[in-house]
Design a protein that fits this description.
Elements lengths: L6 H5 L12 H8 L3 H8 L8 H14 L5 H8 L4 E6 L5 H16 L3 E6 L4 H12 L5 E5 L9 H13 L3 E5 L8 E4 L1 H14 L4 E6 L5 H15 L4 E7 L4 H14 L7 E4 L2 H13 L9 E3 L16 E3 L2 H13 L8 E4 L2 E3 L22
Helix pairs in contact: 2-3, 2-4, 3-4, 6-13, 7-8, 9-10, 11-12
């Protein structure tokens, strides 16, 4: 007669050698437990598992070098240990600094970060959010200026609302829209303070080299500069727009040089530090010495702002801390849904904007030299 297996034997999987990547079945077999028990341990199920079984499963997972299948975990729990970050580009240090802070927070919360590049294309941004939702992340952070008249805003907000209604968290790292909260730099105040500091140094006629006027960040910073300069008797005499990056800063400034309009201004204010770097190169190519023949300012205080020659006058924002703060809020289920958190900046006066001839800036009013 064939041997009959007891009920206990039938419940115990037979150990077998795994080929390729170890599976949950392999872990269960090595630990001598059911597949369901192994799943509960490795997927942090709310159902309790005895300490002995838990230790056996964890030991087997280590011995087999098992890695959790995030897709399977998302199916089982309705969410994966993933935070999705959408950024306009990765070659701009502004976004990489924010991403650094997001990644630090994600690590502390035991999740990984997946990054999508939107290239400041609203259709691509919408498609990215739709695709990311299929991965069932815990949170979605959308970084990059909002665009006035964006035809995809309604659909984007609908996607984010559906995501949050299903238990996810969503935040903008730019201007808040449609009730979705935001953590962002206080562009308007920082730009106003920069404009006032530049005017206090004796500069009265500014050229602004920046991105498209439809970008909310551009509008905030340009209007802030205008108000700051006007408070001290200065003005913006020309605005040159191009792409919101280094190449755009070069092209816009080159046009000002070639048209001769650069001769009408005494300070060039770039919409961000990346544009300022391109602008200073264009000035040199046109025989104009930045910091001597014309003052130059940027915005954000990216890491290289203090390394270029001359060192760049700018508005410092704790970009990594902004990223960390947003991720902390998004990943903490007990944190209240945020509204609009504006993080203040600080004007840093450096060699690219020295006091104009015959001008002595008021003590303490114009910021500090790092």
């Amino acid at each position: 007669m064939p041997l009959q297996r007891t009920g206990q034997d039938r419940r115990k999987p037979r150990a077998r050698a795994s080929s390729g990547n170890p599976t949950l079945t392999d872990v269960a077999a090595r630990a001598g437990v059911s597949l369901a028990t192994a799943s509960r341990v490795l997927n942090d199920s709310a159902r309790r598992v005895g300490q002995d079984h838990r230790e056996r499963v964890l030991r087997a997972a280590r011995e087999l070098n098992y890695r959790t299948d995030l897709s399977a975990q998302a199916m089982a729990r309705g969410t994966a240990p993933v935070l999705a970050l959408l950024v306009s580009t990765i070659d701009d240090p502004y976004f990489s600094a924010i991403a650094e802070g997001v990644a630090a927070s994600a690590h502390d919360h035991g999740v990984i970060v997946t990054i999508a590049i939107t290239a400041r294309d609203s259709a691509r941004e919408l498609t990215s959010v739709r695709t990311i939702r299929g991965q069932r992340p815990r949170a979605i952070l959308v970084c990059g200026s909002r665009i006035e008249g964006n035809p995809h805003t309604g659909e984007l907000l609908a996607e984010l609302r559906q995501f949050t209604e299903a238990g996810g968290r969503a935040l903008f790292l730019s201007q808040p829209v449609g009730g979705v909260g935001a953590v962002r730099p206080d562009n308007a105040t920082g730009a106003r303070e920069l404009g006032a500091a530049v005017a206090d140094r004796g500069y009265r006629r500014a050229a602004v080299v920046t991105g498209a006027a439809s970008l909310a960040t551009v509008a905030e910073r340009t209007e802030g500069l205008r108000r700051g300069l006007a408070s001290r008797g200065g003005e913006i005499t020309v605005v040159a727009s191009d792409t919101f990056d280094r190449a755009g800063g070069y092209r816009a400034t080159r046009r000002l040089v070639e048209s001769g309009r650069i001769a009408d201004v005494d300070v060039l204010c770039a919409g961000n530090d990346f544009m300022a770097v391109g602008a200073m190169t264009a000035l040199r190519d046109g025989g104009i010495d930045p910091g001597r023949d014309i003052a130059v300012t940027g915005f954000n205080d990216i890491a290289t702002a203090a390394d270029v020659t001359p060192q760049l006058t700018t508005v410092h924002f704790p970009l990594a801390e902004i990223g960390r703060r947003a991720a902390d809020l998004a990943l903490d289920a007990t944190a209240p849904h945020t509204g609009d958190i504006c993080v203040p900046g600080q004007v840093l006066l450096r060699a690219s904007c020295p006091p104009a001839a015959g001008t002595r800036p008021p003590g303490g009013a114009a910021g500090r030299r790092p």
